[in-house]
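Sat 14:20. Reprocessing the chain from the morning session after the first attempt stalled halfway. Input below, unchanged.
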Amino acid sequence: MRRRLAKPFESGNFSWSAGALVLSLIAAAPLFAIAVMALHSSGDTWPHLVANVLPGAVRRTLILMAGVAVIALAVGTGTAWLVTMYRFPGRRWFQWLLLLPLAMPTYIIAFCYIELFDYSGEVQTALRALFGWKNAQDYWFPDIRSLGGAIFVMGAVLYPYVYITARASFVAQSICVIEASRTLGRSASETFWQIALPLARPALAAGTALALMETLNDIGAVEFFGVRTLTVTVYDTWLDRGSLAGAAQISCVMLFFVLAVLGLERSLRRGRQFHHTTGKYRDLPEETLKGLKGFLAMLACALPVLLGFVFPTYVLAGDAIAHISSGLTEEFWRAAMHSLALALAAAVLGVVFAVVLAYGRRQTRSRLIHVASFVPAVSYAIPGTVLAIGLLIPLAGLDNTIDEAARSLFGVSTGLVFSGTAFAIVLAYTIRFLAASLGSVEAGLSKISRNIDAAGRTLGASVTEMLWRVHLPLLRPTLGAAAMIVFVDSMKELPATLLLRPFNFDTLATQVFTLASLYRYEEAGLSALTIVLVSLAPVLFLQGIIANSRPGFSTSRTRSAAEQAELALRNS
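Finished this time. Tokens:
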């Protein structure tokens, strides 16, 4: 009997399909708003930007992205291969230590390195004392406040995106392929270049794309290093020149960069998927490196951890301890409470959005719903500055409409209810990180057999009852992981917060940015260290996921889930 396809708006699925469609439109609204605003005239701002600002900003942005991509690919892929295929001193520790720079936001590591390597920093001060140099004319030292410095520092903190995807790919590769390569006479290095690396190309492309998205989104690090990228240009055009239309037009240029990165990632993958053709999932062969080779492997894994986490943490801890009494001010606690409240609200809202979108897509085969719900999946690729502008336009229009209605009906002004409050920040966080929570929820739902849905409907449960009684209890770990990811990312987010925050409203991230911009690096240490410590939770969680990602595990958990679903339905 041919299975009937569910229509998007039949009685059992109407509410979920409509909810998924509405949330998809909300997530897509900023992009439509930017496109509309970009069509407005910006006076003489746009010609000035095209002639004097954009060429340099585009060139610097391209160089920065290319440099970060090279460092992230080299470090992430090389270290992932070492800890997966070889045994050497400290290898067990490096498997998770290499993830630690992921907890270090780019704007925090930037001011840490400025404090270390600037003229008045510890390194140059120690060199002058050691060699008796009097001033900068007596010696040469590379300028950390440069495009090269930005590439080095951002590459040191963003390589884990490639490391995560590369290691997951290497761990999941079939031992039969590697054994066949070695049997045919290829060495370990030849197996890496000719077999493992081509098989991992989709994963490497995805990891590099994530690193490039973070590079394009960054505003704090490039501002500290004096690199005028497109993100900084959007910020200046809006706040310094007062041209929202001009900022929207530059945002369209940034969206072109986003589409180019996504297109490049797709072309590198070329739709390729690699599947196992054997049921033999044994441990991967691990070659033991001794002597000099073992030391070099250990050094290759230790340097990224030192540069991307240990040195910056040393700076932050020193600043926090030295200024602990003056740092625990009312402003710090207020900023911490703001960060906590915003991140919690975004985590809850992000999980709710993700559940509605994923469950609505699960309950229908409508092409309309599936295409519409794809829009939030790419929300992470939208830079924070672009998202802030795209949100401000419709929210300001909604505020004006409400205010006019209140004036005409009640004679009172409501003010900026949405665009002038923390609501705009929470919505920006939710849309910005919706892709992460949506991916987590969809992955969890995919592991629940559709036979459970059919069994529940047979027992008389509605679609909504199935969600509450069966799916949500089974999804508790997944929902917790999704909420944690959104929470931590929201704690770290800077660009959208800078542009959307109400007057005299600070978070830990904006407090760090403001103090560092005023060269008060030591005072920013406590706030920055707090963000880093909170960000460590998902990093350790990721290590557990990667370690257990090798296929071939028992399906007993799936059977247990089915039994739990049937028991839950019968008991209710």
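The mean pLDDT is 79.
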